[in-house]
Amino acid sequence: MTAIPVRARPGAFSVDLALATVALKRRLAYRLNWIFSVVLGGGELLVSLTLWGTILAEQGSVAGYDWDAMRTYYVIGFVTGTFVFSGSDTAQRILDGSVAIDLLKPVDFQRARAAEFYGGLAGSLPTMAVGLTIALIFFTPLPPASVAAGLLTLVSIALIAPIAFSVVYLSTMLCFWTRSYHGIMWARQTVVAFFSGAMVPLAIMPGPLQVLAWCLPFVHFTTTPSQIYLGRVDTLGALGLIAAQLAWAVALWFLGRWLWSRAVRAVTIHGG
Q1: How many other β-carbons are positioned within 10 Å of the β-carbon of residue 228?
Q2: Any long-range contacts for 6-12 (C-beta under 8 Å, 24+ apart)?
């Protein structure tokens, strides 16, 4: 039987909003997790800045980054990391067989999961706000290179969410074949953190790794917004990077639809 795609109806956006709201409430209900995410996220930022502060105090600059640029880079990375690592995923629905019920609902599965992802992401924004406030007080990052750079950085950051959703969605689709998720999740987070530049700026990496990173969508999670913010590309270059982000967002969305059409053929419930 061929699945018939569900078209958006007048009430589709209200369904999206309802799903996002449920995901948001679910995220906010676990206050202890919220506190831990604030502490761990802020601690990771503090460790990175302490390490680079020590290195740059001796060397002055590394790969064109002085202390001012480096601390600004990591503060931006902290903000963008909220969009990359904080959304909800669909792995458990696949592993426990709930996805079979979703097939019977008159709701587009991918779009519904996107709404839940954005709802979970919204629940993490307070964490980001607290961490950013602390960073602004204690580390005083540089202002954007220009007004245009600041505005284009906001556009770039806004485009991170749809790319991040698709990356998570595509990785969870693999659960249809692997029946496991922890390994996939850890591999995804490691690859994303490395090739996005969240661990270290790409400029520090060997040339071949830099080329590979720019061929992947992950580079737009940290490197692209920081390059724009710090003025390392001009306005035309910034628009080119944003266009690349938009292209990745569209391409990954349709790749997700294609993979879903293949994945539903592998649905099993309790081994049946």
Answers
A1: 30
A2: 6/106, 6/107, 6/108, 8/108, 8/111, 12/108, 12/111
- CA-nearest of 114, 145, 162 to 12 is 114
Q: From residue 254, give the alpha-carbon distance in Å to each of 27, 121, 167, 258.
A: 28, 22, 12, 6
| pLDDT of 31 over the 70 cut | no
Whether 21 shows a pLDDT value over 80: the answer reads: no
Q: Are 230 and 145 in contact (CB under 8 A)?
A: yes
* Helix H or strand E encompassing 27: helix 12-29
- Over the stretch 50-64, which tens digit does the pLDDT of each residue have? 888 888 888 888 888
Tokens matching residue 30? 């676990």
End-to-end C-alpha distance for the chain, whole angstroms: 18
Q: What is the DSSP letter of 145?
A: S
Q: Report the chain's mean pLDDT, rounded to a whole number.
A: 81
d(CA 153, CA 16): 27
Distance CA 54, CA 61 (A): 11
Distance CA 261, CA 247 (A): 22
- pLDDT tens-digit readout, 154-213: 999 999 999 999 999 998 888 878 777 778 888 888 999 999 998 889 999 999 999 999
HEC profile of 149-213: HHHHHHHHHHCHHHHHHHHHHHHHHCHHHHCCCHHHHHHHHHHHHHHHCCCCCHHHCCHHHHHHH
